[in-house]
Automatic annotation (TrEMBL):
Family: Belongs to the iron/ascorbate-dependent oxidoreductase family.
Protein name: Fe2OG dioxygenase domain-containing protein
Keyword Lipid metabolism: no
Listed GO MF terms: metal ion binding; oxidoreductase activity
Limits of the Fe2OG dioxygenase domain: 201-301
InterPro entries: DIOX_N, IPNS-like_FE2OG_OXY, IPNS-like_sf, Oxoglu/Fe-dep_dioxygenase_dom, Plant_2OG-oxidoreductases
Classification lineage: Eukaryota, Viridiplantae, Streptophyta, Embryophyta, Tracheophyta
Keywords: Iron, Metal-binding, Oxidoreductase
Length: 347
């Protein structure tokens, strides 16, 4: 079938038409030479695995057990910008329930989902397809649902409010514990980030992504290379891999351990640490056989917090601040306008 068909969502395009080619607007190879260079290269098969942290030892271990965990957590943040979390104590049944309910959302009729179409990054609930921003040159092979869940809680009909609230509350608690350990790895008090970034009113989103099978996965992209806007993003998936991270100038497949969470550093943590811990570039690849569902939960400071390098990491002036301070909500506006082209703001 000619690759000129249009559909309201990628899911509808993939399911309702017997495609052998993708429409040109989804062909990532039509981008500029510079953008192609940034995105080029597949993830190698013979690769170093993503590091893993045992969350139970961070939160409940003895001092002798906890000390190396904190040290290793700092090494992971410095060397990788990401890690996997095991023994996180988030109920497996709750994880399966939230994944199943997201599938139910995407399986709804187009007219039902259209009720949640959003126009702006500040919309509390936003369903869309192709891309987050109108400034992108090529559409992404994905449909998405984005919900603001903290400090104000919003919910579509699916996932149900009580399930969504229970899951995101659990993630928020885990993130605060992880940030406590990261604070200690920097030589700060465990509660330093919690206070400085007003995590009690942290801005938290729930992003569900659907990547249907693609007839030409080598030409399309689920999400292009980018960094996340917040402090830490927590991700789960339905068992289908596709996430890739950039490590030592190579793309590495994030083969997530079943039942584990994948966590990556965002731009706000890079700014806060004055570049000691950098946000990691990552992307989503697509395949031609299976539908991938991922749920990413970005966790940031409060919307009105001015994020800037922490003075204690500037070595009394011998290490100057590499980033200017900016309100988190203003940074979000910048990222929305960047169309996911790398970092929204690097100085």
């Amino acid at each position: 079938m000619a690759a000129t068909l249009k559909a309201s969502t990628v899911k509808a395009l993939a399911e309702k038409h017997n495609l052998t080619e993708i429409p040109p607007i989804y062909n990532f190879q039509t981008l500029s030479t510079i953008d192609q260079a940034i995105a080029s290269g597949g993830a190698g098969e013979d690769q170093e695995p993503i590091p893993v942290i045992d969350f139970s030892l961070l939160t409940s271990g003895t001092p002798d057990q906890r000390s190396p965990i904190v040290r290793n957590l700092g090494n992971m943040c410095r060397d990788w910008g990401c890690f996997m979390v095991i023994n996180h104590r988030v109920d497996e049944g709750l994880i399966n329930k939230i994944l199943d309910s997201c599938k139910e959302f995407f399986d709804q009729e187009e007219e039902v989902k259209r009720e949640y179409e959003g126009k702006h990054t500040s919309d509390p609930i936003c369903h869309g397809t192709g891309a987050d921003a109108a400034v992108t040159e090529v559409l992404f092979w994905r449909d998405y649902l984005r919900v603001m869940v903290h400090p104000e809680f919003h919910s579509p009909s699916k996932p149900a409010g009580e399930v969504l609230a229970e899951f995101t509350n659990a993630i928020r608690g885990m993130v605060r514990d992880l940030l406590g350990g990261i604070s200690e790895s920097l030589g700060l008090e465990s509660s330093y980030m919690d206070r400085a970034l007003n995590l009690e009113s942290s801005l938290q989103f729930f992003d569900a992504n659907l990547y249907p099978p693609c007839p030409q996965p080598e030409l399309a992209v689920g999400l292009p290379p980018h960094t996340d806007h917040g402090l830490l993003t927590v991700l789960i998936q339905n068992g289908i891999n596709g996430l890739q991270v950039q490590h030592e100038d190579k793309w590495v497949a994030a083969n997530i351990i079943p039942g584990a969470f994948f966590v990556n550093i965002g731009d706000q943590l890079e700014v806060f640490t004055n570049g000691k811990y950098k946000s990691v570039f990552h992307r989503a690849a697509v395949n031609n056989t299976a539908t991938r569902i991922s749920i990413a939960v970005p966790n940031g400071p409060s919307a009105d917090t001015i994020v800037k390098p922490v003075p204690e990491l500037l070595d009394n002036g011998s290490c100057p601040a590499a980033y200017a301070g900016m309100k988190y909500k203003d940074y979000l506006e910048l990222q929305h306008g960047s169309g996911l082209k790398g970092r929204a703001w690097i100085i």
